[in-house]
Design a protein that fits this description.
Helix content is 41%, strand content 14%. It is an alpha/beta fold and 457 residues long. The chain has two domains: 191 residues, Aspartate Aminotransferase, domain 1, CATH 3.90.1150.10; 253 residues, Type I PLP-dependent aspartate aminotransferase-like (Major domain) (Aspartate Aminotransferase, domain 2, 3-Layer(aba) Sandwich). Bound molecules: pyridoxal-5'-phosphate (PLP).
Length: 457
């Protein structure tokens, strides 16, 4: 598929209201949605808006068929031979919570996470530790992106019930050696869960071959509708989980005094489901298959390399994570000396139509330990083009220049007032920047800072 063709499939990339096409570099938070996904959801509401598995009429039959077809597609996509291991959930957060609350913990059981997990794979364990006597340990990861196998072995040898790691990091894009971790953990009798949020949209996942017990995915990070995701589990560990929610669809039968649960996966899908979303998520997988994960990886890597190279001479720019671009997946996370991350994000949006994320990216623990206010994260996907990468570079370069000189050594804007001007009105906004608008970036950045302070994310 040509890039032109791809971009024309994403309505959000169409220029509107006199503005150029948006430069969307926040796909690690949520990817954009292509037209076939929108069409699939509309088709559901228009042509067979029934509920699956309850009624015998044709709408119900059709939605049931499509719902299960989506399950089978996720199983294939993630390398699970048995679709019954795929549980539909709202997002990876729910998938991790399902496992955390579903295992039969005993006081003293130990959970091992890395020292840079998303809150979705951290706070639920903290609560288990506080309320159920589970012990939570963290494995420190080297800053250079390597993985310390010896350190893992030491932790495993001390006894671990569950290893729960990210597959690819949302902080710096590093990818962990899933198969090796899984084999080592199993050798010590531990279960293994990976948070696949930032991996499944980009690299082939082969869960049966890797032997992973639980894998959490958010489909809205891989072209799917918001609030869709899966827990992809191996049969035996899934059968041992206690459902989070009970009710309609989860039971074979009930009396006034008891009930019998349905087998997995249905026992975990309580109540009427997000049929449109699940059907849309299937269309998302089909779209990704048409593009090809090789092409996805190649494109984001080339954009990441282009930005990295273009800014390599900037002494005030610091890129987080591994040096090698190939080890950073789609993520270009950075700080600029002397410029607040939220100011940077608002400057890029206002001046260059570049949308990035700023703050702590729901990994407060990482920044808190280093006394950092967060950083800026640009994340690429296959629908981004060279113009997007170049717009990011231009925006960062202008900001560096205005706040104290970039690689060119410009220092005319290095005063405090220069810094304030840069925040208030990016040069590229030029004629568009009315007084009202130029005040807005500061207010937005303040909101971001207040959010970080509150610990949102
Ligand atoms: C690594 C990682 N884990 C978990 C999550 C949580 O995803 P969701 O909010 O879709 O559950 C994210 C979201 O950014 C993430 O990047």
């Amino acid at each position: 598929m040509t890039l032109e063709r791809v971009r024309s499939d994403f309505p959000a990339l169409v220029p509107r209201a006199g503005r150029p096409a948006p430069v969307y570099l926040d796909s690690a938070c949520m990817s954009l949605v292509p037209r076939p996904v929108l069409d699939a959801m509309e088709e559901y509401y228009r042509d067979f808006p029934g509920c699956a598995g309850r009624s015998l009429h044709r709408f119900s039959e059709e939605v049931g068929r499509r719902y299960e077809a989506s399950r089978a597609a996720f199983a294939r996509f993630l390398g699970r031979s048995d679709p019954a291991g795929v549980v539909f959930v709202r997002n990876a957060t729910e998938a991790i919570n399902l496992v955390a609350n579903g295992l039969d913990w005993k006081a003293g059981d130990r959970v091992l996470v890395t020292d840079r997990e998303h809150n979705s794979n951290l706070v639920v364990w903290q609560r288990l530790a506080a309320e159920r006597g589970v012990r939570l340990s963290t494995l420190p990861l080297p800053d250079d992106g390597s993985f310390d196998v010896e350190a893992l072995e030491r932790e495993l040898a001390a006894g671990v019930r569950l290893v729960s790691f990210f597959h690819t990091s949302n902080l710096d894009g590093r990818t962990l050696p899933v198969r090796e971790i899984t084999e080592r953990a199993h050798a010590h009798g531990a279960l293994v869960m990976f948070d696949g949020c930032q991996a499944a949209p980009h690299v082939p996942v082969d869960l049966d071959r890797w032997g992973v017990d639980f894998y959490a995915v958010s489909a809205h990070k891989m072209l799917g509708p918001t609030g869709t995701g899966v827990l992809a589990a191996a049969p035996a560990p899934l059968a041992g989980l206690r459902p989070l929610l009970l009710g309609g669809e989860t039971v074979e039968w009930s009396t006034l005094t008891g009930h019998a649960l349905r087998p997995p996966p249905h026992r975990f899908e309580a109540g009427l489901q997000n049929y449109a979303g699940v059907i849309g998520a299937h269309a998302a997988l089909d779209y990704l298959a048409r593009v090809g994960l090789d092409a996805v990886e190649a494109r984001q890597r080339s954009l990441n390399a282009r930005v990295t190279q273009a800014l390599a001479g900037e002494p005030r720019l610091h890129v987080l994570g591994p040096d090698a671009v190939k080890d950073r997946s789609s993520i270009f996370a950075f700080t600029l000396d002397g410029v607040d991350p939220h100011d940077t994000a608002v400057f890029l949006d206002e001046g260059y139509d570049v949308m990035v994320r700023s703050g702590m990216h729901c990994v407060h623990s990482f920044y808190e330990r280093r006394g950092l206010p967060g950083n800026v994260r640009a994340s690429f996907y296959f629908y981004n083009d060279l113009r997007d990468a170049d717009a990011l570079v231009r925006g960062i370069s202008e900001l560096l220049e205005r706040t104290g000189g970039g690689a060119s050594g410009t220092s005319a804007a290095s005063s405090a007032s220069g810094r304030r001007r840069a925040r208030a009105r990016p040069r590229a906004a030029g004629s568009r920047a009315t007084a009202a608008r130029s005040a807005r970036p500061r207010r937005r950045a303040e909101r971001g800072r207040a959010g970080s302070a509150r610990g949102s994310g």
